[in-house]
Write a structure and sequence with these properties.
about 350 residues, alpha/beta, Quinone Oxidoreductase, Chain A, domain 1, Rossmann fold, 7-stranded mixed beta sheet, 6-stranded parallel beta sheet, 11 helices, 20 strands, about 30% helix, about 25% strand
């Protein structure tokens, strides 16, 4: 977890966590909490979602350049109830329902001092090796990274603030507004929250693209103005660009590649208007072969995002006000037993009709 922790064989076993102990192997084992610091809170976890990165760690013991080298508690999309507060915590009290921002930055490096703390090289992020995660009965976390939920926002919705933050940060980076027509490549969880965020930021028209009929139907139900089914064949890009532009019925100002393949990035670069932007969202393939020079000749800006910064208050306001409804994204729910943890991760890994798999602790 963010403040550290360790496995133990004996003693008080009240606090249990889901440990990634080997390839395709999760075990619920005791998890010792660190002492509560003056600015920390102890949180009883109530809702934890499964992210694609969690599945990558389970299946490969790595995600991008992060490698699991020793047993690690999994999970980082989370919300819970305050059980105890440190002596200097003034903003939270036991019983408060909170959503947790999972990354603890150093606040000393240049990135942090410039306000871009998501780029902090010393970030301690839930379930990013070697830092433990939050799929546990309880965790200890800094109070300033725990955000009180509005009365009409559930704990599950609070846990969804983490993936939603990715979409919100992407829209901020791309300056999405009421005059921005948006293309989203990929209708997985991140593509869908990016679509919802773009709408909340005022995008008047949004087209979403995927290879899967079910996910496209979900996107349509969630408010996409149009959907386009595509193939995985690079040779189809020219005709698919025509179809996408026809579906948009106006110029594409910003494209979000939420899949991260050669084909999705190439399609986005070709479909976006001259002077527009293409934003790569999330962890795509490490190396891509894409038509950068033609895009540069049209002054298409390519931007990237990494996690998020200062997004939880806005996410919670979007949820409170009803501008964004993430409830339809939660398709599967599991409890916190050994079998249910294993079944939940297999459900998430299979994909199919699963969008967001959620634990209720």
């Amino acid at each position: 977890m963010g403040k550290g922790g360790m496995s133990r064989e004996g003693g008080d076993e009240e606090n249990m966590a889901a440990w990634l102990v080997g390839l395709n192997t999760l075990k619920i084992q005791p998890f010792t909490l660190p002492p509560l610091g003056p600015y920390d809170v102890r949180v009883s976890m109530k809702a934890v979602g499964i992210c694609g990165s969690d599945v990558h760690y389970l299946k490969t013991l790595r995600c991008a350049h992060f490698v699991v080298k020793e047993p690690m508690v999994i999970g980082h999309e989370c919300a819970g109830i305050i059980e105890e507060v440190g002596s200097e915590v003034k903003t939270l009290v036991p019983g408060d329902r909170v959503a947790l921002e999972p990354g603890i930055s150093c606040w000393r490096c240049d990135h942090c001092k410039e306000g871009r703390y998501n780029l902090c090289p010393d970030m301690k992020f839930f379930a990013t090796p070697p830092v433990h995660g939050s799929l546990a009965n309880q965790v200890v976390h800094p109070a300033d990274l725990c955000f009180k939920l509005p009365d009409n926002v559930s704990l599950e919705e609070g846990a969804m603030c983490e993936p939603l933050s990715v979409g919100v940060h992407a829209c901020r980076r791309a300056n999405v507004g009421p005059e921005t027509n948006v293309l989203v490549m990929g209708a997985g969880p991140i593509g869908l929250v990016t679509m919802l965020a773009a709408r909340a930021f005022g995008a008047p028209r949004i087209v979403i693209v995927d290879v899967d009929d079910h996910r496209l139907s979900v996107a349509k139900d969630l408010g996409a103005d149009d959907i386009v089914k595509v193939s995985t064949d690079m040779k189809d890009i020219p005709e698919e660009v025509v179809l996408i532009q026809k579906a948009m019925a106006t110029e594409i100002d910003v494209s979000f590649d939420c899949a991260g393949f050669n084909k999705t990035m190439s399609t986005a670069l070709n479909a976006t208007r001259s002077g527009g932007k293409v934003c790569l969202v999330g962890m795509g393939h490490n190396e891509m072969t894409v038509p950068l020079t033609p895009a540069a000749a049209r002054e298409v800006d390519v931007i990237g995002i990494f996690r998020y910064k200062n997004t939880w208050p806005l996410c919670l306001e979007f949820l409170r006000s009803g501008k964004i409804d993430v409830k339809p994204l939660i398709t599967h729910r599991f409890g916190f037993s050994q079998k249910e943890v294993e079944d939940a991760f297999e459900t998430s890994a299979r994909g199919g009709n699963a969008i967001k798999v959620m634990f209720n602790l």
